[in-house]
Amino acid sequence: MAVFATVVRSGSFAAGARALGLTRAVVSHHIRVLETKLGVPLAQRSTRSFSLTPAGEAFRVHCERLLDEAHDGIRGMELLRAEPRGEVRITCSHHFGNKRILPALLEFRRRYPAIRLHVAMNDANVDLVQQGIELAVRAGPLADSDLVARRLVREPTLLCAAPAYLRRYRAPATVAELDQHRWVIYPPSLRSVTVRENGHAVDVPVQGDLVTDSAASRLAFVLAGEGIARLPAYDAAAPLASGELVRVLPEVETAPLEIFLVHGRRIGPSARLLRDFLLEDAGENEAAV
Questions:
Q1: pLDDT tens digits for range 121-155
Q2: Is CB count within 10 Å lower at the N or C end of the chain?
Q3: Helices in 39-148 by DSSP H: which ranges?
């Protein structure tokens, strides 16, 4: 089957024989044996021409698929034999990076010690090309169509506040009362929070005296009783369990936080290996929640 597929791809018995390192006579013999086993002619050949019969055309598809799978398997074994090496530059925000990305990178390092990692913690969206960065972890939808985005995390979010804040300012009883409260605003561009009440989406304007470009600062301000915030579940879980925070309007749904792994159209093998590892790790973590 491999001989037949190679001859077809090469376009002639002579070219196929050269590709396989065999004589033309040996190649012809293999195909005659195959035709005898199948009970149908696969090719029409003469001294100058070579063409497939309808049966040969149908059989070609199966043979080429098997040949491709065999080559992929051999390549995979070669990669396993050779320890992956190289360097990957990745950027992520301080807060999410410390919580989710760094533990995964440590496990990646244990698995692939010969790959050098350059980790740039940055809360701003840096230019990947200018900074020579292959992978970026970013929140929200992707604006640059020249980049590829793979969703890493889809994290539930909750409206939260500290008990001290709710003692000073009466807890909102309805969505309509949310715009009367102080918010800890993050990111600085935040103008409203979309909530769903009784199946309807409502945009709630946010206002407050604390604006931050740091997710860690947002959490600290909310814990200090400075206002309400929409927090990802990975930030809210522990302080909710300890009583440091309480949910505001727990029956109201808020949009999830989506985190993406972003890279250029073409990336190196080490970056591809890290990308696949992070996606697999994120999938396992979501399944465990």
A1: 988 777 788 888 999 999 876 665 678 899 999 99
A2: C
A3: 54-81, 94-96, 102-111, 128-131
